[in-house]
């Protein structure tokens, strides 16, 4: 369901990050509820050289590039197939580009965080100060490095992210353009997109996100650096 509030809002789930031995990072978002357009699926890819490319099954400015485009080398519309193969496993495919299998698992840290999150009142989930404290605790507990649940995206909009439920990703395999990315491996250095830090280990969340309403005087209306 679309969360209540002002501005632009999203609800769904996704892979916050999945770093591989090759140095590539894959991320994923599936938002069945969006205030800026239809439901959509998005795949984010950061190559070993640090270039970001986003793929989504709706026009880019109705999806994640609406907020992150200024930091992207490319933003492309593509058909994305997402199939759940079990309660904690799913496959993602982009024809001719990507084959990706993901497995999820709980950990002691995720169980504790999910328990805390389940009893937090909604007003605390909207508080940047509270989210800052949660981020500072969650990053080390999860082995994810620095995390930020509030900040500013590359296109200028402020964001608040609510990871309501979290799992780890102990196993994943992927190929991009026929290139095998190897096994899951913690990132040696931590990537970021504006104030949004990419976790150094594989994490999956169910949650929601809030952004400022688009203002052409303050926000960039670009889907990529080359748009």
Write the layout of secondary structure elements.
Layout: E1 8-19, E2 25-34, E3 40-46, E4 52-56, H1 65-68, E5 74-77, E6 80-86, E7 89-94, E8 98-105, H2 108-119, H3 122-125, H4 128-142, E9 150-152, E10 158-176, E11 179-180, E12 192-193, E13 196-197, E14 203-211
Parallel strand pairs: 4-5
Antiparallel strand pairs: 1-2, 1-14, 2-3, 3-4, 6-7, 7-8, 8-10, 9-10, 10-11, 10-14, 12-13
* Rg over C-alpha atoms, rounded to the nearest angstrom: 16 Å
Q: Give the overall silhouette.
A: globular
H/E element sequence: EEEEHEEEEHHHEEEEEE
The percent range for helix content is 10-25%
Give the N-to-C terminal Cα separation. Answer: 32 Å
The overall pLDDT average reads 96
- How much strand? 35-45%
Number of strands: 14
> The biggest beta sheet, please?
12 strands, mixed
Number of helices: 4
Spans with pLDDT under 50 lasting ≥5 residues?
A: none
